[in-house]
Amino acid sequence: MNPTAPPLRGLPKVHKPDIPIRPLVNYTTAPSYKLAKKLETILKSQIVLEHNYSVKNSHELVNEIKNMEIKPHQILASFDVVNLYTNVPVTETVALVKDNLEKHSNLLPEAIGVIDFILMPPAKWVYLTTHSG
User: Entry's PANTHER family (predicted)?
Assistant: First the structure.
């Protein structure tokens, strides 16, 4: 595989007013793709979710709520989250991942430190590269 800049394309949201564009990036050609896939495998095997508020996909969600009994005083709600992933605070998310790994995984502290470095925002990589002695 020869790493290249990931291509960007747009998918029109025809069901929305003014038809906004959803950006889609194919990261499979990105230089860090293989590293990200390996990290995903490690994290999925080590992270412990302590609540039942997450689902893998819409099919799992449908199966979860299909047999749910809704009481008269309860209301089902649906939210259309705009720009969800662009608004996830990276620093706080990395801290949560590290905390979870420290509490629940069998990874050595050094391995968790490497994961912390890998998950560091790219701007800090540039800083470390240009300012290291």
Answer: REVERSE TRANSCRIPTASE (PTHR21301), REVERSE TRANSCRIPTASE DOMAIN-CONTAINING PROTEIN (PTHR21301:SF10)
